[in-house]
Amino acid sequence: MRQWLANLFGNKPELTEQQRLRLDAWGKIPPAPLAVPVNEMRCVVVDVETSGLNMLKDRLISIGAIAVVNGQIALADSFYIVLQQPVASHKENILLHGIGGSAQTEGIPAIDALLNFLEYLGKDPLVAFHVIFDQTMIRNAISQYLGFAFKHPWLDMAYIMPAINPGLADRLRTLDDWNGHFDIRNDARHNASADAMVTAQLFQVALAQARKRTIFNFSEFMDLEKSQRWLNSQSSYKMH
Amino acid sequence: MSAIHSTQLVFLAAHAPFDRMEPAHLLWMLERMRLAYYAQGEVVVSPEQGAVEHFMVIKQGMVQAEQNLANAVEEDTWLELGEGECFPLGALLAQRPVASFYRAGKDTFCYELPVADFQTLLGLSAPFRDYCTRRIANLLEHSKQVIQAKYTQSSSEQQSLTSPLSAIIRRAPIICSPQTSVREVLERMHASRVGSMVAVDDAGRPLGILTLPDVLVRIALPQIDMAQPVIGIMTTQLTALPPHALAYEAALTMAKEGFRHVLVVENERLVGLVTEKDLFALQRVGLGQIGSTIRHAQQLEELQLAAADIRSMAHNMLAQGVAAEQLTQFISTFNDLLTVRVIELEYSASGLLATPLADSLCWMALGSEGRFEQTLNTDQDNALIFTVPEGMTAARVRELLLPVAKRINDTLALCGFPLCRGKVMASNPQWCLSLEEWKSTFTAWITNSSQVSLLHSSIFFDFRALHGNKTLADELREWLLNIASDNGRFLHQLAEDAMNFKPPLGVVRDFVVGKEKKLDLKLNGIAPFVNVARIFSLATGVPQTSTLQRLRASSVKMNIPAAEIEAWIDAFLFIQVLRLRHHDEGKAKGLGDEELDNLIDPEELNELDRRILKEAFRQARKLQARLELEYRL
After folding, report:
1. What is the C-alpha to C-alpha distance for residues B589 and B572, in angstroms, rounded to an integer?
2. Residue B570: how many CB atoms within 10 A of its CB?
3. Which residues of chain B does A80 touch, with a Cβ-Cβ cutoff of 8 Å?
4. pLDDT computed for residue B147 by the predictor
5. B39 contacts A208? CB cut-off 8 A
6. Cis amide leading into B88 (omega within 30)
7. What is the C-alpha separation between B280 and B486, in angstroms, rounded?
């Protein structure tokens, strides 16, 4: 927390020469074009585990990700890393995501872990369910340890699913709800890898559904998300 | 870096053949797989796409292959594939396009492996290769082992093949040092009258084995120097089991590897040798005893005891995973023995043997008994055939025979063969006929085929001689084959009728079940095979009555590939074993013979058996498709 505040006030974290080179190399990768059919590109579906649900106070513990390449989940193109923690998180939390105290302190040092993640990701767009959470946690960590503002295209399945299935939106809200509806099983909920996997499967369902509405490009999905966000804000006005 | 989650492995490892593959190979496969999604109705793979590009495993959902009439006998004609199943194996192995349209029956996720990696994996993993190349045989082998495991836990002592090897070893093994000359080894084998010699090192660890069959090919034919050390010509890849391993493991090992010996090794030291003979001896004790009890029985009580022994022996054989063909043969053989003894005793008690009728009589087994396919609750189906002796009429002969037949039927009922509800028994005057009367009865059925005569022919045309003058039955068979093979209209009607018993494969679920959620293994499982085999045999003049032999013999005349026939036979036998197990379990629950049925709840089967059953039903569909093709139905 103190370190994070320090970063906000301009203190640059210290990277080794090699780490600096890695970060620069990543920075030079050109951004991926987004006006491209999802079936002809690579997207990375991500899920994180944290020490709690408070986005300001809690720390990033692990990142799980899997790539959807040309519309198919590439099992080998997947990523999982546990970040080394200064202190293990609270016991209840360990019980929830199953990463034990020793595994947390034994993880990869945060700077290397985040660099690994960026190298795995490249500049391909990210997909998550409830982006705001994953995005904030990753952005804070990158800001704290790598010292820059991580700006990246994200797609939020929590808006895409109701946008494509307006009839179901009232009943289905959480990732579990949607997965339950489409009969996508998750055998290890609250494990970042497994959650990324089922989110990727939900993404595949959405791709097939969107095809029928002639939505193909990643950028079109982002537009869809935007309009759904607007729709949600309108309905919350009405309610108040 | 890849981070395939262990749950993916766990999912695959719950299904054949992945459960038998080495984890390293599984991981190798997963790393090369992609997960694809197909919405309900979407085409997964189709003939137009050319040679198949992916090996697929269903993670979730269901895929259907649509029937393609042009290729009705092709491997992929009709399929409904569920979670954990792989496809399209035939097309992948042959590197050709699929024969049918594969569509997602509901929203489906499939793991897909590129065909080049599939080929590599065939080379890497033996269990995988085995599975892909001999799918049904493999599933069956698998199921056998599951059965064995299950029964070993639940069953009682006295099961010979489940005793530990330590209890079977008869004497210390005959051993030599690896440097002993070939000549000396042969002399010692001869002197101690053993079929094998094991070379051991100073610590007693086995190094090699020489067996009698080796003598011919390794010593006599190449005329080697007899003074050389024996180790040079020994088999050094040894198969060893620990003393606590069970006898059937040794039997399985021998069967699988084609060896006649298994070394018993404890703490690396050779402690004994188990031979094929030792294992056979175990089984024969029981069988031999029952056989001799029956042959010498004088009283009803002895026969009843023997009948009970047959059942418990059948139970043991089920437990030991004895192959279905042998098992049903066993049951038929002993039931035949028992029936013959009952007939002998009743004939002699009635004084019939002293009359001229003694040589002009033949007791026939019909229906499943005629086909050698009895289970543990089979009704009696029998009839008498006779020639009319000089100076007598058929009616008079019947008058003499019927009371004796009645006693035989009643005694058999007391031995656990329930009376036939349809009265298809020798004591029924309708079915106690002279050869001439049988011919005219059969002629009537064939020429004006009503529903009743079709039903009758399905029971009676499976007749075989059980006791007495066998030539009568042979003559009737020869006559029948002549008449039937010429009568296309009758065969066509039989074929139409056979199509009424469809295997209960579901379109939405795995199986179609009735209100009680049960499958009838007899009507929908066994009947398609039995009926088609009967029609083929009548059409091609095959005299055999067993479904297996009918299929094997008629396929040669019909140019059906042997592999196809063997798949049908495997399927048929599997359903037959399921029935036997179902009856066996019913017995264990204390059900009486009359209460045993053929209805099973597919939900109660384990995953493996459910899949084999599906596969078996698919084979039944294929067999029926062949029938449709032959008779243009």
Report:
1. 26
2. 21
3. 3, 5
4. 56
5. yes
6. yes
7. 47
Enter the tokens of residue B228: 């050389």
Q: What pLDDT shows up at residue B293? A: 77
- Give the B-side interface with A, CB within 8 Å: 1-8, 10-11, 30-39, 42, 60-61, 107, 109, 111-112
Chain mean pLDDT for chain B = 83
Smallest CA-to-CA distance from B477 within B539, B538, B394, B548 is with B538
Q: Percentage of chain B with pLDDT > 90?
A: 34
Torsions phi, psi for B265 (to 5 deg): -130, 130
Nearest chain A CA: its distance from B29 CA (Å):
10
For residue B109, CA distances in Å to B38, B62, B85, B98, B283 come to: 6, 9, 12, 19, 49
The CA angle A100-A103-A107, to the nearest 5 degrees, is: 145
CB contacts of A116 in chain B (<8 Å) are 1
Q: Count the residues in chain A.
A: 240
Higher pLDDT, B278 or B36: B36
Q: Tell me the per-residue pLDDT of B164-176, one tens digit each, with 9 for 90 and over.
A: 788 777 777 889 9
Sign of CA dihedral B245, B251, B256, B257: positive
List chain A pLDDT tens, one digit each, 240 residues: 445 444 454 556 688 999 999 999 999 999 999 999 999 999 999 999 887 777 667 788 899 999 999 999 999 899 999 888 766 555 556 655 656 655 656 678 999 999 999 999 999 999 999 999 999 999 999 999 999 999 999 999 999 999 999 888 888 888 889 998 988 887 766 688 888 999 999 999 999 999 988 889 999 999 999 999 888 887 655 444
What domains can you pick out in chain A, each with its CATH number? 2-9+34-239 (3.30.420.10)
Here the tokens at position B435 are 């050869």
- Residue labelled with tokens 């289970």: B375
What are the residues whose beta carbons fall under 8 Å from the beta carbon of A173, sequence distance 6 or more?
none
Write the DSSP assignment of B472-536 as a string of letters. Answer: HHHHHHHHHHHHHHH-HHHHHHHHHHHTTS---B-SSSSB---TT--EEIIIIIIHHHHHHHHHH
Residue B509 is predicted with a pLDDT of 58
* Side chain identity at residue A103, one-letter code: A
Q: Could you give the CA distance from residue B348 to residue B340 in angstroms, rounded to a whole number?
A: 12
Query: From CA B290, how far away is CA B350, in angstroms rounded?
Result: 26
**Structural domains of chain B, ranges and CATH numbers in brackets:** 6-129 (2.60.120.10), 164-280 (3.10.580.10)
Question: Which residues in chain A have their CB less than 8 angstroms from residue B11's CB?
Answer: 187
* CA–CA distance, B2 with B30 (Å, rounded to integer): 11
Alpha helices in chain A (DSSP H): 2-8, 17-28, 91-97, 101-106, 110-121, 131-146, 157-164, 175-181, 192-212, 218-239
Instruction: For residues B105 and B401, give the distance between their C-alpha atoms in angstroms, rounded to a whole number.
Output: 61
Closest residue in B to A186 (Cα) is: B7
Q: Are B339 and B589 in contact (CB under 8 A)?
A: no
**B125, pLDDT greater than 80:** yes
Whether the CB-CB separation of B162 and B246 falls below 8 Å is answered with yes
What sign has the CA pseudo-torsion B450, B451, B453, B454?
A: positive
Q: Which residues pair with A50 in a beta bridge?
A: A60
Q: Is B351 helix (H, G, I), strand (E, B) or coil?
A: coil
Of B34, B42, B60, the CB nearest to A185: B60
* B204 Rama class: left (phi>0) / alpha (psi -120 to 50) / beta: left
- Phi, psi for B510 (deg, rounded to 5): -60, -45
Show the tokens assigned to B349: 């008690």
Cα distance between residue B20 and residue B128, in whole Å: 8
- Calpha distance A88→A105 (Å, rounded): 6
A53 burial class (0-12, 13-18, 19+ CB within 10 angstroms)?
exposed
Residue B196 has pLDDT above 70, yes or no: yes
